[in-house]
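Many introductory courses stop at the sequence. We go one step further.
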Amino acid sequence: MSPDPQPTPAAADAQAFKDAMALLAAPVSVVTGLDTAGRRWGFTASSVSSVSLDPPLVMVGIALTSSCHAAMAQAGEFVVNLLGEHHRSLAQRFATSGVDRFAQGGFGAWEGQAALPYLPDAKVLLRCRTVDVIRAGDHDLLLGTPQQIRIRDEAAPPLLWYQRQFHTPVPATATA
């Protein structure tokens, strides 16, 4: 005879959770890819994280309600474009629904099996092969193995998402 099942604890209040997560600073990226017809797709993401070093894995969270969801979840590859402070308007554009996010240009085509769109002046570029898509609540987690990495050696600060706004960190100054 099995013991009585324990009641499932109630989840935290959704608004309290959102407020708490707004205090978690995160780097801002634009994640880009191609659908099966070769059309470009992209969205602004603050939920990008390293998952594993062996093998190297990166995770990107995408909302099930995103206009890019179907294309990105089925894409065999994607690019994580880590943004700098000069990309603030681009980050806003790629977070906006119902607009042509690529209309203002600035993207190259990373040659390979597919000419994936990427930002040549991004701080870091990760061209990833999708290895899994995992459902997690109202998001899917795209797991990718970086196939190519490009790092720009520049002093410009990164773009961060904090308290529901874009920010750039203030460089530390030497003290006397």
